[in-house]
């Protein structure tokens, strides 16, 4: 009888220990981190593009505020992360031929020991993604390869006349 009582007590203690162990393993202690939206826009333009074109950038912040900027340097970048999930993204880069382009072409041709071609290169990069407590959930992450356009100086004025307005990148999306 004493042996049965000891076995029963041992069994009850193991059962009690298992019950306490399993209730302590609930996932109610998980910390939820807020979702975030990040946008990154970058564009690099060659010096010759800046010489002959006015470059404008139109974009949305992650919270939907529309902004317009004029590029004055070779590289422009915007990067912002905000709390919450936003679904509208926009990044448009336009090149409009300067009104005095003929004078600029003549100056370019007359550079002593100057180049024989004009490099009209662009390199836009853009991405938009959501993150939460588990991992990044990328909506879109694109890199548009650099587009190199070399134009011989003897054909430069004609090329510019035929390409007076360019859209270098257009990334308007609603991802809902």
Largest sheet: 4 strands, antiparallel
Going across the biggest sheet, name each strand in turn.
Answer: 4-1-8-9
Query: Radius of gyration, Cα only, in angstroms?
Result: 31 Å
Summed over residues and divided by their number, the pLDDT gives a mean of: 78
Range of strand content: 35-45%
Quick one: overall form? rod-shaped
**In terms of structural class, how would the helical and strand content be classed?**
alpha+beta
CATH architecture of one domain: Sandwich
Q: Could you estimate the helical fraction of the residues in percent?
A: 25-40%
Determine the N-to-C terminus distance.
71 Å
Characterize the structure shown.
With 176 residues, the protein is α+β, with helices and mostly antiparallel strands. The protein has helices at residues 2-23, 47-52, 101-109, 156-162, and strands spanning 36-45, 53-60, 66-71, 75-83, 88-89, 91-97, 117-119, 122-131, 136-143, 150-152, 165-170, 173-174. It has a domain at 33-98 and 121-150 and 164-174: Lipoxygenase-1. The strands form four sheets. A four-stranded antiparallel β-sheet has the order 4-1-8-9. The longest helix has 22 residues, at 2-23. The protein starts with a helix and ends with a strand. The model has no long low-confidence stretch (mean pLDDT 78).
């Amino acid at each position: 009888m004493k042996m049965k009582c000891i076995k029963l007590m041992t069994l009850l203690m193991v059962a009690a220990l298992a019950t306490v162990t399993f209730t302590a393993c609930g996932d109610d202690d998980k910390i939820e981190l807020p979702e975030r939206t990040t946008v990154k826009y970058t564009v690099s333009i060659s010096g010759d593009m800046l010489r002959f074109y006015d470059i404008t950038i139109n974009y949305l912040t992650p919270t939907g505020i529309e902004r317009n900027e004029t590029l004055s340097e070779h590289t422009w970048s915007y990067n912002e992360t905000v709390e919450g999930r936003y679904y509208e993204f926009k990044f448009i880069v336009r090149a409009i031929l300067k009104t005095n382009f003929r004078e600029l072409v003549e100056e370019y041709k007359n550079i002593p020991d100057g180049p024989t071609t004009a490099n009209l290169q662009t390199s836009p990069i853009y991405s938009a993604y959501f993150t939460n407590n588990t991992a990044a959930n990328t909506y879109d992450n694109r890199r548009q390869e650099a587009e190199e356009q070399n134009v011989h100086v003897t054909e430069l004025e004609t090329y510019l006349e035929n390409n007076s307005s360019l859209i270098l990148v257009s990334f308007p999306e609603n991802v809902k």
